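note to self: dont lose this again. the chain is below, predicted strucutre after it. 295 aa total, dont forget to put it in the shared folder this time
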Amino acid sequence: MNLYLDLFMAWLIAEKGLSANSCAAYSADLGRYLDYLELKHIQKPDNITAPDIAAFLAREKERGLSPRSRARVLSSIRAFHRFLLIERHTGNNPATLLDTPRIDSKLPVFLNNTEVDALLTAAAGESAEDVRDRAMLELLYATGLRVSELVGLKLRELNLGAGYLVTIGKGSKERLVPVGATACKLVADYLEQVRTKQDAELKIPHLFLSRLGRAMTRQAFWNIVKKRALQAGIARNISPHTLRHSFATHLLANGADLRSVQLMLGHADLSTTQIYTHVTKERLKRLHQAVHPRG
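---
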């Protein structure tokens, strides 16, 4: 069965254009699944049944995997079996017979306006790292980029004069995102004061560089967010994605329409963006209480 996994991974890259991180997640989930099938002496796709998949998921539950994680694993298994069917390695798809584990709806964690202001001003110094961190944090909050999109952003993809950037999101989909005046100024300061000194000939395509002059990594920026949150006095555990959530939440709270937020976030499906509508409901509730005579 491992041969089919290799073919599937190559298909994900060539046909679907998935990122290395997405492919790694698929590989990890399906690696455990195929190990289980091997223990059951199942060696051909045609021999896999829906009860086999259900038994594997039950074992994952016993291992302590949450409903959300089991849903992700089942999604990987479904994609794998769909591939096997499309490429005619099998004549059936047993994964279609299984229901997705029920997941309790979980609201996104976001910062309030005061916390955002504190975080964005935490890097108040004039050192090269302060200038870079200010630019990165402000740009992330201004655009709602995923952390992989932020650290992967190229110099040529940024147009400060026109106030927008172009990014390549999930599924290799390109989207244009507006950039506010404050973020444009801080990024321009970073380019002038720091970036040009690290890479005067512009040989490195990436916009943001580490202290050693290399492209910034996701892990390194994660540590920057943790460090600056601590300096800002934010006690909660936050991540780069918290700023993406804050971006979407604050836009909707201030009257942005859901479709526009979907486009800026790069969500393929509007239902993914609808998780943020809780803020519009709260806003309407507050408005009702403020102006209704019987509120």
